[in-house]
Amino acid sequence: MSMKELPLVSAPCCAPGAPPLPEEERVVLAARFKALADPTRVAIVNRLAGADEVCVCVFVGELGLAQPTVSHHLRVLREAGLVEARRRGTWAFYRLVPEAIAELGFALTGTRASSRRAA
Amino acid sequence: MSMKELPLVSAPCCAPGAPPLPEEERVVLAARFKALADPTRVAIVNRLAGADEVCVCVFVGELGLAQPTVSHHLRVLREAGLVEARRRGTWAFYRLVPEAIAELGFALTGTRASSRRAA
DNA sequence: TTCCTTGATCGATGAACGTCGATGCAACGG
DNA sequence: CCGTTGCATCGACGTTCATCGATCAAGGAA
To answer: How large is the C-alpha radius of gyration of chain B?
Structure first.
């Protein structure tokens, strides 16, 4: 693997009155935002937000993209820590990591969202 | 100006249980996240979050980048609707658009942050 | 074992991005 | 008027990214 998992960033960056951010945290935050800086990946995350687990084959069918392309986007999201994969036989199911999403939201607004897991 | 301002997106995209997002909204959201997908621009937004208005010359001095590069990043943030400029004589002062930041946070968490302006 | 299926990786290609020097343009001071 | 200052735009260069076809690895069924 070429990239390690991204460390946590627990300070707001963009909310009015936020304290200065050290260099490394800016890099980490930018990397996470970059993972969402593509319509396809926004669609994937949004799709996962509506269903607990989604098979890769479903994404290939719904997104209208080639399978390697879908796999590439899933990898980007995985390395950003926004999604995680669960292997079940031949299939791979992806699901959101709500804490990572909430952390990004906190970095933006400086306000903790009430963490609520989908039942 | 070559580009129009981005329209508003008022629905969450990434919070657990979020409804499906139409194509156009995914593109708009991805474009906004892309504006934050760079360490320099995160630094600019973070700097603006700590002070109401900042002169362009200050950014040039603090970021250690050439003036055209800073102007480029400010343009990206401006076209994303995250910052706005105020001309005062020869100088240009930039400031945050807190509503745009908060809107991005809402898209992520599905929770409205208590809008609070820096005094 | 031998197929078929699912998903990840590799390699290549075209587009987009970050960076900077040079230039343009408006506002001020002489 | 002319020269300077502050910022935006332009052009170019090197890097990164999105996309796809081909290939590979792992599992299930015969």
So the answer is: 15
Using a 10 angstrom Cβ sphere, with 0-12 exposed, 13-18 middle and 19 or more buried, the burial of residue A114 is exposed
Beta carbons of B25 and B71 less than 8 angstroms apart: no
Separation CA A74–CA A114 (nearest Å):
26
* pLDDT of A106 strictly over 50: yes
Q: Which positions ≥6 away from B88 have C-beta within 8 Å?
A: none
B82: nearest CA partner in chain A: A14
Whether A90 and chain B come into contact, CB under 8 Å, resolves to no
Q: Which two tokens stand for residue B85?
A: 């400029």
Q: What is the pLDDT of residues B69-88, one digit of tens each?
A: 999 999 999 999 999 999 99
For C17, nearest residue by CA–C1' is: B38
pLDDT for the residue B112: 85
Does A21 reach chain B within 8 Å, measured CB to CB?
yes
Characterise A110 by phi-psi region: left (phi > 0), alpha (psi -120 to 50), beta (else): left
